[in-house]
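Sequence in, structure out. Go.
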Amino acid sequence: MPGFISMALAFVAMIGVAYTLAATALAGRWRPHGPAEAPADAPSITMLKPLHGPEPMLEEKLRGFLDQDYPASIDMVCGIADPTDPAADVVRGMQAKLTKLTLVADDRRAGSNGKISNIINMMSTETAPLLILSDSDMAVSRDYAARITAEMAKPGVGAVTLLYAGRGDAGGWSKFAAAGISWGFLPSVMIGLATGMAHPCMGSTIAIRRETLDAIGGFARFKDLLADDHAIGAAVREAGLSVVVPPMIVTHGSTETSLAELVAHELRWNATVRMLDPAGYAGSVVTYPTAFALLAVIAGAGWWVLVAALLSRLALAARIDYGVGRRTAPLWWLPARDLLSFGLYLGAFFTRRVDWRGSRLHMADDGRMTAETETRYP
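Output:
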């Protein structure tokens, strides 16, 4: 029996190695091809930025969305629920120099999802024909708007979303969190897209025309959903339009300053994915070759299993970092990062409540959520 167990664990580990090598080979597909060219009739754009709380490098990130090589006008609407939110001071400071920047402070709640309530309040302002919604922790290059509008101009495209890699913006734990994004999450989406198994729509970027948004029921349709980004993409597809993922990778600035914060954040994300796609989440067990290889060695398998797993994972991490042009974290962190990711993967099977932006949320099987508590900045 011990021999069978070690062989079974080694087999799963080797499937993971094959998966990892495939992801390494696919990583090159997501580099932009050629210079960015906006369409001749480039539309005006409103960038929507729901904000919550203090965040490292927030002004730099916001400015990046406005400082674009783009022929048409770009304005930005930032939203907060609490006028005393520290993010408001950053935006007010920017308004002194930028005229196309609006701050909406409104604490009205449309539903359980505080972020969507914030966005609904932001939509009370005048917006451009093309909306680009993105999380506050994203950073982009100067060709961001041009590449998105070039995709939106293609027939049948209803929305554009983008892959993202991690960057630690708040010290060691944030780099550890960024490694989970770059070396774990990002390759899994690449594989999912290549095989047709993934249909993402992510908070990194959701570009959508105002008319399309109105046709799917506006943001109010998603006011009680935890996975609002995914639901917006599903609604666009239901309307007969496509959600495209062009070859461009933006940056997620991780801000975790402690292990507890990292665990809470990633456990919420894992639990959300498990809720949306239980079978797919269970099948993603093959993305953890390091953990299964270590278990196989403990059960009596040869060390070659663990060596193969580690080498494949190191190759993937190095390839991802090369593609995004920076070292996400020290490569020697990778084994510990892989083992933590596997532990959180298992933990999500037992998670029904999550912490999100100061609220304790209960997750229902239909993807809806109810808020148990809410906190504000003093």
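Check: The longest strand covers residues 74-80. Residues 33-255 form a domain with the Spore Coat Polysaccharide Biosynthesis Protein SpsA; Chain A fold (CATH 3.90.550.10).
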